[in-house]
Design brief:
By secondary structure, the protein is α/β, with parallel strands linked by helices. It has one domain: Rossmann fold (3-Layer(aba) Sandwich), CATH 3.40.50.720. Helices cover 55% and strands 14% of the residues. A seven-stranded parallel beta sheet has the order 3-2-1-4-5-6-9, sandwiched between helices. It has a two-stranded parallel sheet with strand order 7-8. The N and C termini lie far apart (57 Å). The model has no long low-confidence stretch (mean pLDDT 93).
């Protein structure tokens, strides 16, 4: 058995949404590389159980990323417990059910924006004083939906495009402070969040059947975490995974407008949109 290299030895990391999924997998991988980690999550029972599973290098804190005061207090407490912070990972997020814009309530839009985008903003605001002291690193999770058409998932796409914009802005504004900023874009990661949003919905199954299999193939949370951990080790600014998404990211100036035009005029997709609308109207 090979011994994992302690490439993050002594690093002090705080992760939001850390009780499960990508957050938990990243915490586990970071600890294996020698880091100490503060797990932040609004689910008190789950985050404390997660910390127990990870052992003495993990500490649990309870915070809702939509509450800036509560979150700032938790980040401050984590910094005090760890003796400072080197990495702040804004990971908390939600994915709504697949519906059209017409079928999305204002309350649901606000919920998704509040957690995914405002939560990332609040995490950055809470972590900034600590990272200025250590010339540390922010990690924010955007999505391939930052550059894809947001059909059937507009709140999620809007929120993740905003997170990407936040990451790019921070990359420029914080360069003079010596703070690195990593913006991650993942395709479909096999987590409870994605399964709850996509699985068991005939509409989603039909949509996935229309798309290339290389794009809809899911990666594990551990694989996503491995990309993030390499990004932290190398202080990378940009992550896109899996590799099948790289061309669309690199050519987004062409693939975006041309793709939108093709999708808007694709008979099979028009039929799917009509089916979605009928279903939403019947359920309203």
């Amino acid at each position: 058995m090979t011994t994992q290299r302690k490439t993050l030895s002594g690093k002090r990391i705080v992760i939001t949404g850390a009780a499960r999924g990508i957050g938990f997998a990243t915490a586990r991988g970071a600890i294996g590389r020698g880091a100490v980690v503060a797990l932040l999550d609004r689910d008190e029972l789950a985050v404390r159980e997660a910390a127990e599973r990870l052992g003495p290098s993990a500490t649990a804190f309870v915070a809702d990323v939509t509450d800036p005061d509560q979150l700032a207090a938790a980040v401050d407490a984590a910094a005090e417990a760890l003796g400072g912070l080197d990495v702040v990972f804004a990971n908390a997020g939600v994915a709504p059910k697949m519906v059209t814009v017409a079928g999305t309530s204002t309350a649901e839009f606000d919920r998704v924006i509040g957690i995914n985008l405002r939560g990332a903003w609040n995490t950055v605001q809470a972590g900034l004083p600590h990272l200025r002291a250590t010339r540390g690193q922010f990690v924010v999770v955007a999505s391939v939906y930052s550059f894809l058409n947001g059909m059937f998932c507009a709140p999620y796409a809007v929120s993740k495009a905003g997170v990407e914009a936040l990451g790019r802005t921070l990359h420029v504004e914080l360069a003079g402070d010596g703070i690195a900023v990593t913006t991650a874009h993942f395709g479909f990661v096999d987590t409870d969040l994605i399964r709850g949003s996509l699985d068991g919905d005939p509409l989603t199954e039909q949509l996935e059947a229309l798309l290339p299999g290389a794009l809809t193939k899911r990666i594990t949370a551990d694989r996503a975490a491995a990309h993030l951990l390499r990004g932290i080790e190398r202080r990378k600014s940009w992550i896109v995974a899996p590799a099948a998404w790289w061309p669309l990211d690199r050519l987004r100036g062409l693939s975006g407008p041309l793709g939108d035009l093709a999708l808007a005029n694709w008979p099979k997709l028009r039929k799917l949109v009509a089916e979605a609308r009928r279903r939403e109207e019947a359920g309203s």
